[in-house]
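ingest -> validate -> predict -> emit
validate: passed (alphabet ok, no gaps, 64 aa)
predict: started
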Amino acid sequence: MESFDAISLVFISLGAFLLPLLGNKIKIPGIVLEIAYGIIVGPILNLVSPSEFISGLAILGFYF
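emit:
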């Protein structure tokens, strides 16, 4: 795994862990915040770029 993939995984993991907690505090569903986070971190800020590893995780998450 390249270091860029590791940094991307850290961004994704932090968002997946912290956003539902934040959503409970501000009374917004966690999934809404996660979708907005994905849009902001991915295409807008370009902090996470698609790679084979990230795409594999996305497919695995889709199946489960």
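The radius of gyration is 12 Å.
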